């Protein structure tokens, strides 16, 4: 059960002009499940993406990077079941054959297709079954396919994640609709596995690329479930331009700020949805670090706290075992940290409690106040380092019996 | 239940000339348990230690560092129950009062006493109860106190860890006896919480200090249970000099190599015992990385694999989910790693299986071979990077339901 997250209804997911989506059952790894998604985008659309920094990145990630550099994108194809990672030359050939299959059906060039895979690593993709499933996905292409696609890209996810929002830019309504998947192997490094957002905004290619990197950093690159960076992480934004707003060509363009806010907002919502549905999660935790010298050291502290199995099991147990948070701050790698200046607050539902100050237990802190907040499903941890003006926020979940159960049983 | 580890019998732990140990029940945190250990060492003994690099290091760690720099050590005092970390000035005062209490009883100076604490962080040490317990511990001082002390320093440990060995140096028999404790918050950085080795070897102070750092790196700094570096880690070696071997003054000294081997051997045994008794452990895993450019990158890869919750849950499930190992190698931080050259072997009980080669599944690999090895309690993972001559080994355990249970319930 995800923490405070309900899949939006099909009706709430707005179609994006210039984007059609279809799904199919290709039997990639198991029969009888929707495991193939095809996204067709109109000519003239602009696409930008960021991908995993894992050195064992999957074959489709290699192909995506190459195709994005070569040609304008006309289609995306996503399979679940097999990640096509650690599959060598055979895996590269399978990713290319997938693109060729899509290209033939949609009458585009193979390098106008971006392939994405998610699932088990180190097993070969049954590309024949995938390609055999493509005609059914193509026949299913429709503007309102988001709801079904958000389900079709799930693996260990318990709910589908998707969101829509709209923003007025110079009198034109711009729509953004996106979906994401992933519940384990989540500590994205550049982007998570998998986030897709489409919008009809008209924006220059270089501006779109810059925004994708910036927004990825604030959203998918600021979450963690288990600290494991996937081999297949990808975050892709499609801009079809069909809203007919005045093109956004620089940061001074009319609508830039509003579009950036809308894009960051939907990306953060989709990224947080992954954590809310993190494997075995019972709590959604925001770790906000402030007063650092730079954003990097704030992120290092936030991730140390967010990755600590001891902190995560304490949240699971609703135990205000605050020493574990301090210990994680202490080993986060800031060699000259003056722990005598560190303060920590716990918060939930508008209530904030100072639990540690000057590196120790806060004078006025009462265990029952900490315990009351730890009982809640959404908890904030605020850590003030008191050595600068930088800040960073990371979202994570707790660590429960079910995390172990899910991952011990995943392949069986 | 620890993995293949049985506490040695009291009789197998050899006394070390010049060292006496006594224990007591001081009621530090809970009544009716042995929670106080006193170690008295003869005048003329040499002592060296390495301590946690956690910035939130505990008050006793600060006091140990200061006292080691000021005076020759005559006593060590160890309490369990409360870690005296994150306790500010009051905690520093408590650590100093502890030393004063010991000094008065044993008629030494307070800065000749090293204090050690382990237990809950962020709670104040009840120093009055600790000091009140000291006379009973002093009355209990005896050369054969190791067995009881190894039990008295336990916290979430399920078994006591101790070992003895002896080595001939130029016709003199040198004895080494040590003990260690710790099962969670184990990813030592300089030393673990807590390792003590005493020996009657005659060795120069600077040689002892160098050896302690070197041996810590090979033993306590090469293990991990959960990746959490404790606030209280300490590894201390006491050399009383009473074996009357010719003093070891440099690496050419007679007996240096033999003593180094004996010291490293007992330290590795004690460090591995912590992993065998790691919280919830059902498997003992050696991750050996070879063919790196330097030891640091080999350690980074070994720790990435050893810390991955996905790898650890796969070991718990005896599931040869090898893609998780490759994914961890890929995100270990070697930016120019050529994954096409990486090979991975699984081994157990003398049987070794090549599971991945050239970055993918090995041609001859059969799932049943991997599955057979994963069933065993002691498993080796060997990873060849094929880019240099450096190597490093890390020992870890799997991640089970019981890890979550133990840490969710630790304070209750």
Would you mind describing this structure in some detail?
Two copies of one chain form a homodimer. Chain A has 412 residues and is an alpha+beta fold. Chain A has two domains: 10-276, L-amino peptidase D-ALA esterase/amidase; 284-409, ArgJ beta chain, C-terminal domain (Ubiquitin-like (UB roll), Roll). Chain A is 32% helix and 26% strand. The first copy, chain A, has eleven helices and 16 strands. In chain A, the strands form three sheets. A seven-stranded mixed β-sheet of chain A has the order 9-16-11-15-12-13-14, with helices on both faces. In chain A, helix 2 packs parallel to helix 3 (127-139) and helix 7 crosses helix 9. The first copy, chain A, is globular and about 70 Å long. Chain A starts with 18 loop residues before the first strand and ends with a helix. The model of chain A has no long low-confidence stretch (mean pLDDT 91). Chains A, B: Heterotetramer of two alpha and two beta chains. Chains A, B: The record marks 118-119 as: Involved in the stabilization of negative charge on the oxyanion by the formation of the oxyanion hole. Chains A, B: It comes from Pseudazoarcus pumilus. Chains A, B: Pathway: Amino-acid biosynthesis; L-arginine biosynthesis; L-ornithine and N-acetyl-L-glutamate from L-glutamate and N(2)-acetyl-L-ornithine (cyclic): step 1/1; Amino-acid biosynthesis; L-arginine biosynthesis; N(2)-acetyl-L-ornithine from L-glutamate: step 1/4. Chains A, B: GO terms for molecular function: L-glutamate N-acetyltransferase activity; L-glutamate N-acetyltransferase activity, acting on acetyl-L-ornithine as donor.
């Amino acid at each position: 059960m995800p923490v405070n997250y309900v899949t939006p209804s099909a009706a709430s997911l707005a179609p994006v002009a210039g984007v059609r989506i279809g799904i199919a059952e290709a039997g990639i790894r198991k029969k009888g499940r929707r495991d193939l998604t095809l996204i067709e985008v109109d000519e003239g659309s602009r696409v930008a993406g960021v991908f995993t920094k894992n050195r064992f990145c999957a074959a489709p990630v290699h192909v995506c990077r190459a195709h994005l550099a070569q040609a304008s994108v006309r289609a995306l194809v996503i399979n679940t079941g097999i990640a096509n990672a650690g599959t060598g030359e055979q895996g590269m050939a399978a990713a290319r054959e997938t693109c060729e299959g899509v290209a033939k059906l949609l009458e585009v060039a193979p390098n106008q297709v971006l392939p994405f895979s998610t699932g088990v690593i180190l097993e070969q993709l049954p590309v024949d079954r995938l390609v055999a499933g493509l005609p059914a996905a193509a026949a299913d292409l429709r503007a309102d396919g988001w709801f079904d696609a958000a389900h079709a890209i799930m693996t260990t996810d318990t709910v589908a994640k998707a969101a829509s929002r709209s923003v007025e830019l110079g009198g034109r309504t711009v729509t953004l609709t996106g979906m994401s998947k992933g519940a384990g192997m989540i500590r994205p490094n550049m982007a998570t596995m998998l986030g897709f957002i489409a919008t009809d905004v008209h924006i220059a290619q270089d501006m779109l690329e810059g925004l994708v990197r910036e927004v990825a950093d604030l959203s998918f690159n600021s979450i963690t479930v288990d600290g494991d960076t996937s081999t297949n992480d990808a975050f892709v934004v499609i801009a079809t331009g069909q809203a007919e707003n005045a093109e956004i060509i620089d940061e001074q363009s009319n609508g830039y700020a509003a579009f950036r806010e809308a894009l960051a907002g939907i990306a953060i919502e989709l990224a947080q949805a992954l954590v809310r549905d993190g494997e075995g999660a019972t709590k959604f935790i925001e770790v906000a670090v402030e007063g650092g010298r730079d954003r990097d050291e704030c992120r290092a502290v936030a991730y140390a706290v967010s990755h600590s199995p001891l902190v995560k099991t304490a949240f699971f147990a609703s135990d205000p075992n605050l020493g574990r948070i301090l210990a994680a701050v202490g080993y986060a790698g800031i060699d000259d940290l003056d722990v005598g200046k560190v303060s920590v607050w716990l918060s939930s539902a508008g209530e904030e409690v100072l639990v540690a100050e000057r590196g120790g237990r806060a004078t006025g802190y009462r265990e029952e106040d900490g315990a009351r907040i730890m009982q809640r499903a959404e908890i904030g941890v605020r850590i003030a380092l008191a050595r600068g003006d930088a800040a960073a926020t990371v979202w994570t979940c707790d660590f429960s019996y079910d995390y172990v159960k899910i991952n011990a049983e995943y392949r069986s």
